[in-house]
């Protein structure tokens, strides 16, 4: 992400993850699109690694994201034979939590299934819960599901799943992160100003200061300049008026 501007993030919606990235990976018809997706979401068998080792495998656009990482996970041999996937690592295991839920398109049509998992250190049933979590997405096979009817259990494409790995933070995420207010400091609402009032006051102070020429180092002149600086900052109290004046 070194060549990206500050603030750039790969932050897709669940619909985009399933309908575009995962479905395009499953179809694999376009080489140019596959090359583009490989720059964003790598193929990794995440169950061969501990979750804290996975961020190093994220590529390019997600490599320095401190909060979430995306991976295409190939189907395991046990799944191909109709069995259950093996979700063990060298130090623990992933355990599903809650019930699977549908991922819907903007037209309220189910397009995938989402399952949430939590990583536990140790071995079941005595594992210790960690802050590492994962969302596993699988796409619905639309052709097979349309043949079986709307009320039947949808058929899933399991050649690849798309996993979002993240760590549950004990503070707000980076978008909302801010330092706590200092002890004893009160935050007051800004006093509304009449449009043009501050400019008139600054001009009046400026003319008053210029009339007392020859007073280099005079404390009164310094205080006037300080007051001018504070009033200048107050120009931005009303942001709506400020941006309106800029855009006109």
Which SSEs are present, and which pair or pack?
Layout (H helix, E strand, L loop, with lengths): L13 H14 L3 H8 L29 E7 L2 H4 L11 E13 L5 E12 L6 E13 L1 H7 L7 E12 L29 H15 L7 H16 L4 H9 L1
Antiparallel strand pairs: 1-5, 2-3, 3-4, 4-5
Helix pairs in contact: 5-6
Explain the overall architecture:
About 10% of the residues have low confidence. This protein has 7 helices and 5 strands, in the order H-H-E-H-E-E-E-H-E-H-H-H. The protein has a 5-stranded antiparallel beta sheet, covered by helices on one side. The longest helix has 16 residues. By secondary structure, it is of the alpha+beta class.
Order of helices and strands: HHEHEEEHEHHH
In round numbers, the mean pLDDT is: 75
Model regions low in confidence, pLDDT < 50 over at least 5 residues: 212-237
Structural class: alpha+beta
The number of helical runs is 7
How would you characterize the largest beta sheet?
Answer: 5 strands, antiparallel
Global Rg:
29 Å
Multimeric organization? single chain
